[in-house]
Amino acid sequence: MRRSGTSSADVEIETYGCAMNQADSEFMAGLLEKNGHTVGEGGEILIVNTCTVKTPTERKILKRLKELGNSGRRVIVTGCMPRAQPDIVKEFPRFSFIGTNIEDILEAVEQEKYLRISDGACRLEFPRRRKNPLVEIIPLAQGCVGDCSYCIVRSARGQLNSYDPELILADLRKALPDGVREFWLTAQDTGAYGKDIDSSLPELLKKVSAIEGDFRLRVGMMNPNHVLQFLDELIDAYRDERIYKFIHIPVQSGDDKVLKDMNRRYSADDFRRIVKEFRDAFPRITISTDVILGFPTETEEAFQNTLSLLEETEPEVLNISRFWLRPGTKAGEFKQLPTRISKDRSRMVNSLFKDYALRKNQAWIGWEGRALVSEESRGSYTARNFVYKPVIIKSDKNMLGQFVNVKITDATYYDLRCEA
Questions:
Q1: How many helices (H) and strands (E) does the chain have?
Q2: What is the pLDDT of residue 329?
């Protein structure tokens, strides 16, 4: 019910960034609707849930906020930017700001002007409205334990605060009767989960595996230094057939000197070991990784080491980022490389990836198996097979939420095509 003495409002939410931000937007929508407000498109109040990891995304958001400054709409800015870059409050004095504590959204909506930028609380007991009714995004924790020299996420999300595993399991159990078929476990670093509460990611996955039901589970990003601490246990936990054989382990560079300058706390060989042991256990697993190109200390030799690592390991998903200086970071103290270097290196890595990714996806042609249909767009459906490969299905039937048998007939570097 709506709070006493307040009127209902029409609210729209615009979301940028990672799965954690997507989950935060769903929780904010749930809190608002539970308190009598309406959430949809074109609302008189616009919530802009911001991301500050990469400069291009930040620039896009700032451009959007400047446009909104002349729109006459009430704007509430949430997410990582207000905490990591508090000067944004001065740049847009007409807007309200709440940072990552999404519980404050009620007061922000119900007041003409609101400003309180504080840490985020545990979200798991909040109501939510799912953007995709088939997918439940479950935050495992808030904050991280890393101090990478190029990153400002820690200043936005704070120190690690792992959520009680019983709350996580209760969220999963509660969502199953609602028709949820796919769960995403997310955090700034899922590998760090439990370090502050005497638990761990493998322990949590074992508890999830004890829950009955025909669902699929995608485990979010985990840094290599954490994976190394429980590699055997994690591989064993992944043996549950309901866990997608998909692992996101960002390497960032194939050069040990650059990794040290990034303060990443692992070596290129550590990444090689993780990839090898997971592929030994699950030969068709999808390995997802990230690389940053043009880091200030990335010499030509260091870049070639990254190319060699990618050619050797051939990760199935590759997120390529050019280095962007973030305010207040240690990497900002290094002499910066010309932008043309990061552009050229990005093009080279992208070309390498597309070549081998197409070859690897074409090796799936002729495969037959079960896939979960979780998305629909313009007359086609996207299903995911056991390694989380996107499988595109053309069909006039409503297939959402169904497990279907597919036969792969074609492939691009990005996805698989099929007959169903």
A1: 14, 19
A2: 86
